[in-house]
Write a structure and sequence with these properties.
single chain, mainly alpha, 2 domains, 78% helix
Length: 181
């Protein structure tokens, strides 16, 4: 009976890859034939970050990520070499699964870093003047609001003063009259 699991969210995959990329996890995976303890460690770290994934789910996700990355690299190399996969063309030996995982993670992290650098460059290209103008506009708006508030407070104070003077005059005027029998 096959058991269908929920798809991993992007944040779960990112967290998973970060955990797999840690040096101690890579050391444990490197050359490990039985890696259940490693994936127990990964599962535990996922739980600490708030994602409940069991050992088998982590193992399967690792296999899936490695397979997809290998397929991607093979297709990329095939296009670059004119048809045949570059690994076969060069006669390279097949690497161990642990080094494939490490290579996959390094490749993905490098891709993320390049994407982040491109985004930072794009943001830096925006004119600094525009950002400074927005800041100056915000400051001017705040000063205008403060001036309006000060004017309103001055008007209220003038009204209160006039009211108290008028009230005082009325009290004095009514205070000198004889009481009505």
């Amino acid at each position: 009976m096959s058991r269908k699991t929920l798809a991993w969210s992007k944040k779960e995959v990112e967290t998973f890859l970060c955990i797999l990329g840690e040096e101690d996890v890579q050391r444990e995976l490197d050359g490990a034939v039985r890696n259940e303890k490693v994936f127990q460690l990964v599962s535990g770290r996922m739980a600490i970050t708030g994602y409940e994934k069991n050992t088998e789910q982590c193992r399967q996700k690792c296999k899936k990520v490695t397979k997809r990355n290998t397929q991607f690299r093979t297709e990329t190399n095939r296009c670059a070499s004119g048809g045949a996969p570059a690994a076969i063309t060069r006669g390279e030996a097949k690497r161990s699964r642990a080094s494939d995982v490490a290579a996959s993670i390094r490749y993905m992290q490098a891709s993320d870093k390049r994407r982040q650098e491109r985004e930072e460059e794009r943001l830096d290209r925006r004119p600094r003047v525009a950002r400074e103008e927005v800041l100056q506009d915000a400051i001017d708006a705040r000063l205008h609001e403060d001036q309006r508030a000060m004017q309103q407070m001055a008007q209220v104070a003038a009204f209160n003063t006039a009211f108290l003077q008028t009230f005082s005059q009325m009290v004095q005027a009514f205070g000198h009259r004889d009481p009505v029998p």
